[in-house]
Design goal:
single chain, about 325 residues, 10-stranded parallel β-sheet, TIM Barrel, binds iron/sulfur cluster, binds S-adenosylmethionine, binds 6-(5-methyl-2-OXO-imidazolidin-4-yl)-hexanoic acid
Amino acid sequence: MSVEIRCDWQIEEIQAIYNLPLLELVYQAASTHRQYHNPQQIQVCKLISIKTGACPEDCSYCAQSSRYNTEVTPQALLDGETVLSIAQQAKANGISRVCMGAAWREVRDNSQFDRVLDMVKNVTDMGLEVCCTLGMLTDSQAKKLEAAGLYAYNHNLDTSPEYYSTIITTRTYGDRLKTIDNVRQTNVTVCSGGILGLGESVEDRVSMLHTLANLNPHPESVPINILSQVEGTPLENQPDVPIWDVVRMIATARMIMPGSDVRLSAGRARLSQVEQAFCFMAGANSIFSSDDGKMLTVTTPCPGYDADKEMLNLLGLEMRPPFQCREKITDPLIEVT
Ligand code: SAM
Ligand code: DTB
Ligand code: SF4
């Protein structure tokens, strides 16, 4: 029986999936994964921090908030040439998506945004998928990004609506959903997920997944970040998230949003190959890889291109070429009986 894509999930159903016996959950998620994706392929993305630090928001996990004293040195918006050369290097290493992140609360209609639009256009012209994560967007800004050729916009919900104000006070869950909706009104795909390890309960995790899985259509990609505890932030002393919680979260996301890419994002650097392999078995099919050892900032390590190629090789996996994400995530690839 094939698994349908549904946007009417009940909290109790998601909770029941999350709490399945672990190996049963992984087995079901792996089976679902095979109906919608080529299980041999992993999307490999490269992050570029185009503007670093000095962010006015107070996200309690973040090294880039101006409210906390962290080891991040603020850096103004990069120039187009620098971004292009990092993207070229990424392309030469088989990366299919470049994700440009800016530590902004929101986009402003100014020359900096025009520079970002140029970057989007130039990197897209190289034949790469481009994703941006620039904070809040208005509908007209989303349309300008679409016109520049943007493939995806990342805007995470991070946690449940109930827990959100414990983590961030400078914006609301509604603000977040509004930007996602502004992106949804364009042809740009939506990338939205969250973080594990903020001190949230299982109910919060289920509630965040419930919000994501009831967006219609689902986000085309769902990043699952593991908190990287950053010295100087309010969450610096949070305990490490157990690997089985990561596996459960990925498997549940895979089960309820079967057509989406599920990305094992921040925190992967501290996982062994065996732990990562378990995440891929549970339905993760996307990662960030880097040649400078970091995700966006020095506080959050990222595995290198060479180490990742070696691991993928070892596991019999290949890097997915750009623009292979299925246009409409409605029809199963394989009928599982
Ligand atoms: N400023 C933009 C925004 O917040 O939407 C974009 C950049 S922000 C760094 C993107 C995402 O990275 C956050 O929503 C959060 O999920 C994740 N993130 C940031 N710091 C993290 C950390 N220390 N550990 C894990 N994930 C983190
Ligand atoms: C996402 O969900 N994870 C990426 C990307 N989207 C922008 C960022 C990971 C955290 C990076 C934190 C740091 O490097 O300081
Ligand atoms: Fe700013 Fe984004 Fe960090 Fe929040 S997560 S402080 S909005 S850079």
